[in-house]
Amino acid sequence: KSAATHAGLTAMFLKWEQVFLSFVILGPYLMTYTWSLSFWVRLAAGFLAMSQAASQVIVFADPSSVSANAVNPFGEHSQAYISLCLATGVSGALFCAFSEPLGLLIIQLWGIYSVYTWTSVGFETFDPPSVDNENFFSDVVGPSSIATVACVTAGICVVSALSRMCFRHPQWMINILAGVFGAPIGAHATVQAIYFYWNDEQVYAPLVYGLLAGNRSVWCLPASCKIFYTTYFILVIVSLITQYFVYESQREATRGAKPYSPIQFRHPNRRGVSFSNSALVNLDESSEDEDVERCWSVSPQDMSDTWQANLETPNSCWFFLTVVVSSSSMASFIFTFLVSWSGDTATNFFIGLFYILTNAFCLWSIIEFFFTTFWFHVIRLVCGIPRLPKSDFSNGVPRKGRTILAYCLLSKTKENSKGTMETALEAHLDNLDANMRITTGVISVTSALHLVQYEMTMRDACRGVIRQKLAGEAQAVCRLVEAGAFESEGRNSGRWQLRYALEALEAGSGHRARFWLNVWESLGRIRGPALHAALLVKVEEAASHFIYLHRTSTILKKPGQYQDLMVLASTGNNTAYTYLKADYGEQFGREPGTECFGFSGNVSSNEDPDKFESAIQALTLKGKPDIDLVAGLGADPKNHYFYTMVLDSDTVCPPGSIRSLLEYAEHPSNRSYGIINANLAADYSKAEDEITWHMWRSALMEVSTVNLQRGQFWIFDRVGFYGKGLIRNEMYISRLIGEPGQPVEALPVDILSHDTVEAKLLQPAVATSVTLYEDVARNPISALSQSTRWMRGEVRNSCYGHDGSYRGIIRALTALYCWVACKPKQEVFIRWREVPRSVGAEYLSLTGFRLFHAGPCILMVNMATTLLASRKLGLELEVLPVVGMYAFLFTVLALFIVPKGFLILDKLPSLNLGKYTLCTKRASKVGDGGFKSETEDEEDSLVSARDLRTSPSNLEDSDVDIESDEEDEGEVPPGKCCVLMRQLVLAIVEIVLSVLLFSPELIVGVIRLVQGSWSQVTGSANWQPQEEVENEIRNNLNMGYVWKKCYIVFLAGAAYLFYALWFKIEDVLVWLLMASWLLYPVTTYWMCMPVSESMKRSFLWTWVMDIKRIQ
């Protein structure tokens, strides 16, 4: 062989033929695991099948394209044809990974094709005829009988795939079909890899297309074809046997464990079987009260209907995701053609493919955001986006709306405990119910004895505040009743008189006017001393419904707090029956039958044992009435708590917000939604003197964007869950907790991002007219600490499932770390690794995962363009300078410019055609016969005008209790045009800041990813509570402290600067990126600084806060 030929073949080995080198891995993998039809199986099968299908199309379209030149395997069309094959493969991988039915169909069709290919070779006795250009098609198709059988089989597979739109196929049948048809695919890929190594003559031409039916006359040589034919069918048999044993081994590992399914909630006292041995209520079993009978349990039909609704994927979701995937595939096509694949190229196949896949991931996120924004405005303008239907509880919450607010607290300082208690007190007073069916509880897992005692003292102090405020207001009510204010001028006028009278009190609040009016009417409109005495009884009852519960263990962290509360509030049971030591071991489990709430555990002190025991007894005596209150109501099947409002310790619930959420939840059309979310916004009222520039920028982003949750809910018929929402107790117990002897335990015991699993199982909805407020990170340093915790939660979640993204990597690194550190590897018992979920639920659950990986992926694309491609280190691009510029412009347009421009559309009225359009039978969508869009039925914001959480409009007509100050009454809110112009100006400011401040996210995202993954590997998470992080930064803020937190980004910028100077890079975008990295310590320090009083008088501040009030 000549040196030139050898050099050409060597170059070929480093380029196009590497696709067949990858078959060494893909083939055996598909031969072993295709039966699982996992995400990774579908991704690999989609790429392999569609890339080779493109090769087959090229054979039909241009049979003479193959060339003997190793550098240009497709002749003069090499660049276009190679790009087409790879782009088609990447698109096929995206579509197959996106849809399991489509992935199975592609596996079936390509499995049929591979069997057809080798069967045709066998029928032709391993000597296929030479292809004649005049009879090309007939020569390629081969024996007609085999082609007919293949076409009929393919047709049956297509019909079977379409039938999945009408009914669900059993999972075992899907696994069998995937395994049977996947075996030929894996075997075919493996044979092609063997052919590559077997071919001593280096006859490379057959491998340009692969071993296809269309070019079998080239690769099927009599000397070797029979061996490959036999090898193929042997590998098919081996694959079927291997998949069977792998499948059986997995079944054996899980034998005895039933597949996940929710249980039917049945109140213990109805069945005569109690969750506990106390707090039982003796009720007549033969009661004919139908309303009581419905309380005994959730009917099997109702449970089945709501569970089925959770598993359904609406057509709007399929259409939206198809558009997103299609658009992402088109963008991937473009980037594939920009890579140089032919001629004397430096592109390595694997590096080029990695570059394309990384671009596809980044483009997916950008395109998804763009289309979500676009979709929202189109649907709103044409159909109108209806709000959830709601009931009317303005006269008081009904029996089946009884709710307990759960403020989950873990405190290490008195300041934190005090802040939580004060927040809970404010929520309690702002959401009082005349029927006393709203209870506010602080659910604590604080362990230090002196803090537990302080929290109990704070409970008593808060009750004293409740008594003081409500007693004064009760006297004002009595005076107005005696004056006849509620009778002479009507209810509405009387309510406003009462409102003004309450606001005149030093400790009064006008938003409780409705509460007092309802209380007076519920008492039968009595007068005189009897009224005052009855109102004082109500005051005492309101104080008693502000409770403090201390949990005796920290198992399951925050979700464990409200799970035990749900069981106590719904059944009266205060004993543990989930997450027991028998299943989870000493470290993660608890003893069965131990009390959940009390002071017998999770309290520690260095005091003398006798003093400690005396303190525990005093706490038990004080805390027992609170436990008895919840347990007593929970044991009553008619009056138990039906809802739990899960809250963080800093969540603010404005006046009337809980009642409004209950009105949505109790509407019959919303019964399938297990969680009713509210809008979440940052609370700037608690520390107006300490508002930093980082907090201002967060507010700037809020006012210059559109709330996309409404559009998201319309598309997916669900939204995500973010740890704050109104939860149906019975549905939650049925799907995530279980009952004694039949635990469900859907949450892994060591889970961090629990809200992801809860959202999959409970189908959250969003009530966009209700807004709750929470503290926002005050600076970029604490924001990074917070997001790193979330990142670790996403990494851990991805390790639970068998096809989790990080499962294999983390397991390998953990095993290596344990071996090096000589530590035993801990295996945590997980009851369910997979739970049933809809496509929409799975897609939404990965939103955070995609966002956290956006920065690192953009960094990899940037490095590939400026480092690898510019130096031709395994990657060569056709138009290098243009690629960077156009990619940047596309990102800016898709993420910033166009969505901000859409703000104009948000001010236009809707055509409200949704009432004539039947999209679904669900009441939350159009076509339910009672459609009302937002423009037809505007609701008032549930906010308070005394701070930045206010909207002082239409108080006279409002059905919501809104608090206002005299100083706000004269303010005239700006008009829509004025608001729009301000939003557009602020949007420009936000775009400029985003370009400057988001660029460091490329490095920060990598830091977050490494820290989150490493903490998962080592099993150590030394996270500080957020409040501690904030206090540490506040006490140590200086340039030196900021430098210690930010120096990695600066060093990355310095290294990049050295590289740019050394190689004389003149790309403006690269220099802009470097500047933002080098300035990161300075910008971070600036963002940590408080906003000065002079700046608060500038338009940058006043415009932002004015728009927040209006919104």
Describe the fold and architecture.
The protein is mainly alpha-helical and 1111 residues long. It is 59% helix and 5% strand. The protein is built from 44 helices and 9 strands. The chain has a 7-stranded mixed sheet, sandwiched between helices. Strand 1 (403-409), helix 18 (414-430) and strand 2 form a beta-alpha-beta unit. Helix 38 (976-998) crosses helix 44. The longest helix is centred in the first third of the chain and has 34 residues, at 349-382. The N and C termini lie far apart (77 Å). Residues 1-14, 201-205, 272-297, 918-931 and 933-970 have low confidence and may be disordered.
Question: What topology emerges from the helices and strands here?
Answer:
Elements: H1 3-13, H2 18-21, H3 23-33, H4 39-61, H5 78-98, H6 100-123, H7 136-141, H8 144-163, H9 171-198, H10 206-209, H11 216-219, H12 225-253, H13 268-271, H14 290-296, H15 300-311, H16 315-338, H17 349-382, E1 403-409, H18 414-430, E2 438-444, H19 449-482, H20 485-488, H21 491-504, H22 513-522, H23 528-544, E3 546-550, H24 557-571, H25 581-588, H26 609-635, E4 643-647, H27 657-665, E5 675-682, H28 693-703, H29 709-716, E6 725-728, H30 729-737, E7 738-739, E8 742-743, H31 754-762, E9 764-774, H32 780-800, H33 807-821, H34 839-845, H35 847-871, H36 880-901, H37 966-969, H38 976-998, H39 1001-1018, H40 1026-1036, H41 1039-1062, H42 1068-1078, H43 1080-1088, H44 1099-1110
Parallel strand pairs: 1-2, 1-4, 2-3, 5-9
Antiparallel strand pairs: 4-6, 5-6, 7-8
Helix pairs in contact: 3-4, 3-9, 3-12, 4-5, 4-6, 5-6, 5-16, 6-8, 6-9, 9-12, 16-17, 17-29, 17-35, 17-36, 18-19, 19-21, 19-23, 24-26, 24-30, 28-38, 28-44, 32-33, 32-39, 32-40, 33-39, 35-39, 36-38, 38-44, 41-42, 41-43
